[in-house]
Amino acid sequence: MLLQTNPGSIVNLEVTDRNKFQYMFIAFATSIQGFSYCRPVINTDATHLKGKYRGVLFTAIFHDANQQIFPLAIGKVKDVFGENPVLVIVSDRHCTISSAVVEAFPRAFHGVCIYHLLKNLKTKFKSKTKELEQHYLQAAKSYNLQEFHVLFYTLCLAVPGAKEYLESVGLDRWTRSHAPCRRYNIMTTNISESFNAVLVKVRELPITTFINEVRLLCQRWFHQRRTKSSGCSSRMSSDVENKLEQRRDRAQTMAVSVLFIRCQLFYAFKIYASNLNLLNIFQKTPYEAYDLCSLYYSREFWHEMYRGVIQPVPHISSWSIPSQISTFDLQPPDVRTVTERHRKRRILSTDL
Questions:
Q1: What 3 state SS string does the chain have?
Q2: In this model, does residue 172 exceed pLDDT 90?
Protein backbone atom coordinates (compact mmCIF):
# COMPACT_ATOMS: atom_id res chain seq x y z
CA MET A 1 0.00 0.00 0.00
CA LEU A 2 2.92 2.34 0.60
CA LEU A 3 3.86 2.09 -3.08
CA GLN A 4 0.28 2.67 -4.20
CA THR A 5 -0.23 5.79 -2.09
CA ASN A 6 3.31 7.13 -2.64
CA PRO A 7 4.30 6.28 -6.25
CA GLY A 8 8.01 6.55 -6.89
CA SER A 9 8.94 5.18 -3.47
CA ILE A 10 11.21 2.17 -3.21
CA VAL A 11 10.24 -0.77 -1.01
CA ASN A 12 12.12 -4.05 -1.13
CA LEU A 13 11.45 -7.09 1.04
CA GLU A 14 14.10 -9.80 1.19
CA VAL A 15 13.24 -13.29 2.44
CA THR A 16 15.17 -16.53 2.87
CA ASP A 17 14.64 -19.73 0.89
CA ARG A 18 12.08 -20.76 3.50
CA ASN A 19 10.11 -17.49 3.15
CA LYS A 20 11.42 -16.14 6.45
CA PHE A 21 11.76 -12.38 6.81
CA GLN A 22 15.37 -11.26 6.31
CA TYR A 23 15.37 -7.49 5.87
CA MET A 24 13.38 -4.61 4.44
CA PHE A 25 14.41 -1.47 2.57
CA ILE A 26 12.32 1.72 2.34
CA ALA A 27 12.86 5.11 0.72
CA PHE A 28 9.97 7.53 0.29
CA ALA A 29 9.58 9.19 -3.12
CA THR A 30 9.70 12.61 -1.47
CA SER A 31 13.08 11.82 0.10
CA ILE A 32 14.44 10.53 -3.21
CA GLN A 33 13.33 13.72 -4.96
CA GLY A 34 14.63 15.98 -2.20
CA PHE A 35 18.09 14.54 -1.55
CA SER A 36 19.53 16.16 -4.70
CA TYR A 37 19.10 19.51 -2.93
CA CYS A 38 21.14 18.36 0.09
CA ARG A 39 24.88 18.58 0.57
CA PRO A 40 26.37 15.31 -0.77
CA VAL A 41 27.39 14.07 2.67
CA ILE A 42 25.57 11.06 4.12
CA ASN A 43 25.49 10.15 7.78
CA THR A 44 25.07 6.41 8.19
CA ASP A 45 24.52 4.55 11.41
CA ALA A 46 23.12 1.27 12.67
CA THR A 47 21.23 0.68 15.89
CA HIS A 48 19.48 -2.29 17.46
CA LEU A 49 15.76 -2.93 17.25
CA LYS A 50 14.23 -3.93 20.59
CA GLY A 51 11.17 -5.89 19.51
CA LYS A 52 10.53 -9.60 19.82
CA TYR A 53 12.65 -10.49 16.80
CA ARG A 54 15.41 -7.98 17.49
CA GLY A 55 17.36 -6.98 14.37
CA VAL A 56 19.30 -3.89 13.29
CA LEU A 57 18.07 -0.58 11.92
CA PHE A 58 20.41 0.93 9.29
CA THR A 59 19.69 4.54 8.30
CA ALA A 60 21.06 7.08 5.82
CA ILE A 61 20.58 10.70 6.90
CA PHE A 62 21.36 14.02 5.20
CA HIS A 63 21.45 17.57 6.58
CA ASP A 64 18.91 19.88 4.97
CA ALA A 65 19.52 23.56 4.18
CA ASN A 66 18.35 24.49 7.68
CA GLN A 67 20.75 22.03 9.38
CA GLN A 68 17.96 19.62 10.30
CA ILE A 69 17.49 15.88 9.84
CA PHE A 70 16.57 14.81 6.32
CA PRO A 71 15.97 11.02 6.37
CA LEU A 72 16.77 9.42 3.04
CA ALA A 73 16.46 5.67 3.41
CA ILE A 74 16.29 2.70 5.73
CA GLY A 75 18.32 -0.17 4.28
CA LYS A 76 20.37 -0.35 1.08
CA VAL A 77 21.26 3.24 0.19
CA LYS A 78 22.68 2.37 -3.24
CA ASP A 79 19.19 1.51 -4.49
CA VAL A 80 18.30 5.21 -4.18
CA PHE A 81 20.99 7.08 -6.12
CA GLY A 82 23.76 4.69 -7.19
CA GLU A 83 27.24 6.07 -7.90
CA ASN A 84 28.14 9.68 -7.08
CA PRO A 85 31.77 10.81 -7.55
CA VAL A 86 31.50 13.67 -5.03
CA LEU A 87 29.69 11.64 -2.39
CA VAL A 88 31.05 11.63 1.17
CA ILE A 89 29.92 9.03 3.68
CA VAL A 90 30.47 9.66 7.40
CA SER A 91 30.10 6.83 9.89
CA ASP A 92 31.84 5.11 12.75
CA ARG A 93 34.61 2.58 12.08
CA HIS A 94 32.51 -0.56 12.32
CA CYS A 95 33.92 -3.15 9.94
CA THR A 96 30.54 -4.03 8.41
CA ILE A 97 29.87 -0.41 7.42
CA SER A 98 33.37 -0.02 5.99
CA SER A 99 33.10 -3.16 3.87
CA ALA A 100 29.61 -2.16 2.66
CA VAL A 101 30.86 1.29 1.60
CA VAL A 102 33.74 -0.24 -0.37
CA GLU A 103 31.41 -2.65 -2.11
CA ALA A 104 28.50 -0.31 -2.84
CA PHE A 105 30.31 3.02 -3.33
CA PRO A 106 33.90 2.36 -4.46
CA ARG A 107 34.30 5.97 -5.69
CA ALA A 108 32.90 7.65 -2.59
CA PHE A 109 35.06 9.05 0.18
CA HIS A 110 34.46 7.36 3.54
CA GLY A 111 35.13 9.69 6.46
CA VAL A 112 35.13 8.83 10.15
CA CYS A 113 33.05 10.46 12.87
CA ILE A 114 35.59 12.33 14.99
CA TYR A 115 33.71 11.67 18.24
CA HIS A 116 33.48 7.92 17.67
CA LEU A 117 37.21 7.91 16.98
CA LEU A 118 37.76 9.99 20.13
CA LYS A 119 35.96 7.31 22.17
CA ASN A 120 38.24 4.68 20.65
CA LEU A 121 41.27 6.78 21.59
CA LYS A 122 40.07 7.24 25.17
CA THR A 123 39.65 3.49 25.50
CA LYS A 124 43.16 2.88 24.21
CA PHE A 125 44.93 5.69 26.10
CA LYS A 126 43.00 5.88 29.37
CA SER A 127 45.69 7.70 31.36
CA LYS A 128 45.85 10.68 28.99
CA THR A 129 42.17 11.44 28.48
CA LYS A 130 42.21 15.20 29.17
CA GLU A 131 45.22 16.06 27.01
CA LEU A 132 44.07 13.67 24.32
CA GLU A 133 40.61 15.18 23.86
CA GLN A 134 41.80 18.78 23.74
CA HIS A 135 44.62 18.30 21.22
CA TYR A 136 42.80 15.72 19.09
CA LEU A 137 39.68 17.83 18.49
CA GLN A 138 41.76 20.90 17.67
CA ALA A 139 43.80 18.91 15.14
CA ALA A 140 40.72 17.30 13.59
CA LYS A 141 38.95 20.63 13.08
CA SER A 142 41.94 22.66 11.85
CA TYR A 143 41.55 24.25 8.42
CA ASN A 144 45.07 24.17 6.97
CA LEU A 145 48.03 21.80 6.96
CA GLN A 146 50.38 24.16 8.77
CA GLU A 147 48.03 24.55 11.70
CA PHE A 148 47.31 20.81 11.69
CA HIS A 149 50.97 19.79 11.86
CA VAL A 150 51.56 22.03 14.89
CA LEU A 151 48.52 20.66 16.73
CA PHE A 152 49.21 17.06 15.74
CA TYR A 153 52.82 17.33 16.91
CA THR A 154 51.58 18.65 20.27
CA LEU A 155 49.14 15.73 20.50
CA CYS A 156 51.85 13.17 19.75
CA LEU A 157 54.12 14.64 22.45
CA ALA A 158 51.31 14.62 25.04
CA VAL A 159 50.06 11.11 24.21
CA PRO A 160 52.79 8.67 23.12
CA GLY A 161 51.39 6.08 20.73
CA ALA A 162 48.59 8.28 19.41
CA LYS A 163 50.54 9.14 16.27
CA GLU A 164 50.79 5.55 15.07
CA TYR A 165 47.16 4.83 15.93
CA LEU A 166 45.72 7.87 14.15
CA GLU A 167 47.93 7.44 11.09
CA SER A 168 46.77 3.83 10.81
CA VAL A 169 43.18 5.11 10.62
CA GLY A 170 44.18 7.54 7.85
CA LEU A 171 44.65 11.27 8.37
CA ASP A 172 42.32 12.06 5.49
CA ARG A 173 39.44 10.21 7.17
CA TRP A 174 39.25 12.27 10.37
CA THR A 175 40.75 15.70 9.58
CA ARG A 176 39.42 18.65 7.64
CA SER A 177 42.84 19.66 6.38
CA HIS A 178 43.59 16.30 4.69
CA ALA A 179 40.12 15.37 3.41
CA PRO A 180 40.16 14.99 -0.42
CA CYS A 181 36.46 15.94 -0.64
CA ARG A 182 34.47 18.71 0.97
CA ARG A 183 32.76 17.55 4.17
CA TYR A 184 31.31 21.02 4.81
CA ASN A 185 30.74 21.22 8.58
CA ILE A 186 29.77 17.55 8.94
CA MET A 187 32.52 15.93 11.00
CA THR A 188 30.35 13.68 13.18
CA THR A 189 27.38 11.32 13.01
CA ASN A 190 25.46 13.33 15.59
CA ILE A 191 22.48 13.78 13.30
CA SER A 192 22.15 10.00 12.84
CA GLU A 193 22.38 9.56 16.59
CA SER A 194 19.64 12.16 16.98
CA PHE A 195 17.41 10.30 14.53
CA ASN A 196 17.96 7.07 16.45
CA ALA A 197 17.09 8.88 19.67
CA VAL A 198 13.80 10.05 18.15
CA LEU A 199 12.96 6.42 17.39
CA VAL A 200 14.12 5.00 20.72
CA LYS A 201 10.63 3.91 21.85
CA VAL A 202 9.39 3.09 18.36
CA ARG A 203 12.17 0.53 17.95
CA GLU A 204 10.41 -1.69 20.48
CA LEU A 205 7.36 -2.11 18.21
CA PRO A 206 6.68 -4.85 15.63
CA ILE A 207 8.23 -4.12 12.22
CA THR A 208 4.96 -3.17 10.48
CA THR A 209 4.00 -0.76 13.25
CA PHE A 210 7.54 0.58 13.32
CA ILE A 211 7.46 1.38 9.58
CA ASN A 212 4.12 3.12 9.97
CA GLU A 213 5.48 5.24 12.83
CA VAL A 214 8.48 6.24 10.71
CA ARG A 215 6.11 7.23 7.91
CA LEU A 216 4.04 9.35 10.30
CA LEU A 217 7.19 11.02 11.63
CA CYS A 218 8.51 11.86 8.15
CA GLN A 219 5.06 12.99 7.05
CA ARG A 220 4.86 15.42 9.99
CA TRP A 221 8.42 16.72 9.42
CA PHE A 222 7.85 17.31 5.72
CA HIS A 223 4.64 19.24 6.37
CA GLN A 224 6.13 21.41 9.11
CA ARG A 225 9.30 22.23 7.17
CA ARG A 226 7.48 22.82 3.89
CA THR A 227 5.29 25.34 5.70
CA LYS A 228 8.27 27.00 7.37
CA SER A 229 10.36 27.21 4.19
CA SER A 230 7.39 28.61 2.24
CA GLY A 231 7.08 31.43 4.77
CA CYS A 232 10.79 32.24 4.73
CA SER A 233 11.47 35.66 3.18
CA SER A 234 15.29 35.68 3.34
CA ARG A 235 17.64 34.39 0.63
CA MET A 236 19.08 31.72 2.91
CA SER A 237 17.42 29.28 5.28
CA SER A 238 16.53 30.48 8.78
CA ASP A 239 19.49 28.84 10.52
CA VAL A 240 22.05 30.06 7.99
CA GLU A 241 20.56 33.56 8.00
CA ASN A 242 21.09 33.71 11.77
CA LYS A 243 24.68 32.58 11.35
CA LEU A 244 25.27 35.27 8.74
CA GLU A 245 24.00 37.95 11.09
CA GLN A 246 26.24 36.71 13.90
CA ARG A 247 29.30 36.60 11.65
CA ARG A 248 28.62 40.03 10.19
CA ASP A 249 28.71 41.44 13.73
CA ARG A 250 31.95 39.64 14.56
CA ALA A 251 33.50 40.69 11.24
CA GLN A 252 33.29 44.38 12.21
CA THR A 253 36.14 43.92 14.70
CA MET A 254 38.05 41.20 12.86
CA ALA A 255 41.77 41.78 12.46
CA VAL A 256 43.53 41.47 9.10
CA SER A 257 45.69 38.63 10.40
CA VAL A 258 42.72 36.27 10.71
CA LEU A 259 41.45 36.84 7.16
CA PHE A 260 43.32 33.83 5.78
CA ILE A 261 41.88 31.49 8.42
CA ARG A 262 38.36 32.81 7.89
CA CYS A 263 38.60 32.37 4.12
CA GLN A 264 39.59 28.75 4.65
CA LEU A 265 36.62 28.29 6.96
CA PHE A 266 34.41 29.67 4.17
CA TYR A 267 35.93 27.23 1.69
CA ALA A 268 35.24 24.30 4.03
CA PHE A 269 31.67 25.25 4.97
CA LYS A 270 30.63 27.37 1.97
CA ILE A 271 28.92 29.69 4.46
CA TYR A 272 30.06 33.30 4.52
CA ALA A 273 32.61 33.47 7.34
CA SER A 274 35.11 36.16 6.40
CA ASN A 275 35.28 39.93 6.71
CA LEU A 276 33.55 41.28 3.61
CA ASN A 277 35.22 44.69 3.95
CA LEU A 278 38.67 43.07 3.96
CA LEU A 279 37.77 41.00 0.92
CA ASN A 280 36.74 44.17 -0.91
CA ILE A 281 39.97 45.90 0.06
CA PHE A 282 42.35 43.09 -0.93
CA GLN A 283 40.46 41.54 -3.85
CA LYS A 284 38.50 44.58 -5.08
CA THR A 285 35.37 42.45 -5.50
CA PRO A 286 31.78 43.69 -5.15
CA TYR A 287 30.46 40.39 -3.72
CA GLU A 288 27.71 40.32 -1.17
CA ALA A 289 27.67 37.79 1.65
CA TYR A 290 24.94 35.79 -0.07
CA ASP A 291 27.02 35.43 -3.24
CA LEU A 292 29.63 33.53 -1.25
CA CYS A 293 27.16 30.98 0.13
CA SER A 294 26.48 27.62 -1.45
CA LEU A 295 23.05 27.04 -2.98
CA TYR A 296 22.69 24.09 -0.61
CA TYR A 297 21.85 26.64 2.11
CA SER A 298 19.45 28.74 0.02
CA ARG A 299 15.76 29.22 0.63
CA GLU A 300 14.99 27.76 -2.81
CA PHE A 301 16.85 24.52 -2.11
CA TRP A 302 15.30 24.34 1.34
CA HIS A 303 11.81 24.59 -0.13
CA GLU A 304 12.53 22.13 -2.96
CA MET A 305 13.67 19.49 -0.47
CA TYR A 306 10.21 19.38 1.08
CA ARG A 307 8.08 20.12 -1.96
CA GLY A 308 6.78 16.55 -2.10
CA VAL A 309 4.00 15.24 0.13
CA ILE A 310 4.09 11.88 1.93
CA GLN A 311 0.59 10.47 1.57
CA PRO A 312 -1.02 8.51 4.43
CA VAL A 313 -1.83 4.84 4.13
CA PRO A 314 -5.62 4.22 4.22
CA HIS A 315 -7.35 1.81 6.57
CA ILE A 316 -6.75 -1.86 5.86
CA SER A 317 -10.41 -2.36 4.95
CA SER A 318 -9.90 -0.31 1.78
CA TRP A 319 -6.69 -1.98 0.63
CA SER A 320 -6.48 -3.56 -2.81
CA ILE A 321 -3.98 -6.37 -2.28
CA PRO A 322 -2.64 -8.30 -5.32
CA SER A 323 -3.22 -12.05 -5.18
CA GLN A 324 0.50 -12.89 -5.26
CA ILE A 325 0.93 -10.90 -2.06
CA SER A 326 -2.22 -11.99 -0.23
CA THR A 327 -1.34 -15.66 -0.80
CA PHE A 328 2.33 -15.26 0.14
CA ASP A 329 3.10 -16.98 3.45
CA LEU A 330 5.73 -14.77 5.09
CA GLN A 331 7.32 -16.33 8.16
CA PRO A 332 9.02 -14.49 11.04
CA PRO A 333 12.82 -14.66 11.23
CA ASP A 334 14.67 -17.21 13.32
CA VAL A 335 15.71 -15.68 16.60
CA ARG A 336 17.48 -16.87 19.68
CA THR A 337 15.17 -16.95 22.67
CA VAL A 338 16.33 -14.48 25.30
CA THR A 339 15.16 -14.91 28.87
CA GLU A 340 16.62 -11.73 30.36
CA ARG A 341 15.02 -8.31 30.16
CA HIS A 342 15.64 -6.37 26.93
CA ARG A 343 18.39 -3.78 27.16
CA LYS A 344 17.05 -0.22 27.19
CA ARG A 345 20.28 1.75 27.08
CA ARG A 346 22.72 1.70 24.21
CA ILE A 347 25.99 -0.23 24.33
CA LEU A 348 28.93 2.15 24.51
CA SER A 349 31.27 2.13 21.52
CA THR A 350 34.53 0.20 21.85
CA ASP A 351 37.85 0.21 20.05
CA LEU A 352 37.04 -1.19 16.60
A1: CHHHHCCCCEEEEEECCCCEEEEEEEECHHHHHHHHHCCCEEEEEEEECCCCCCCEEEEEEEECCCCCEEEEEECCCHHHHCCCCCCEEEECCCHHHHHHHHHHCCCCEEEECHHHHHHHHHHHCHHHHHHHHHHHHHHHHCCCHHHHHHHHHHHHHHCCCHHHHHHHHCHHHHCCCCCCCCCCCCCCCHHHHHHHHHCCCHHHCCHHHHHHHHHHHHHHHHHHHHHHHHCCCCCECHHHHHHHHHHHHHHCCCCHHHHHHHHHHHHHHCCCCCCHHHHHHHHCCCCCCHHHCCHHHEHHHHHHHCCCCCCCCCCHHHCCCCHHHHCCCCECCCCCCCCCCCCCCCCCCCCC
A2: yes
- pLDDT per position as a tens digit, 193-212: 999 999 988 988 888 888 89
Q: Which pLDDT band, with edges at 50, 70 and 90, does 105 fall under?
A: confident
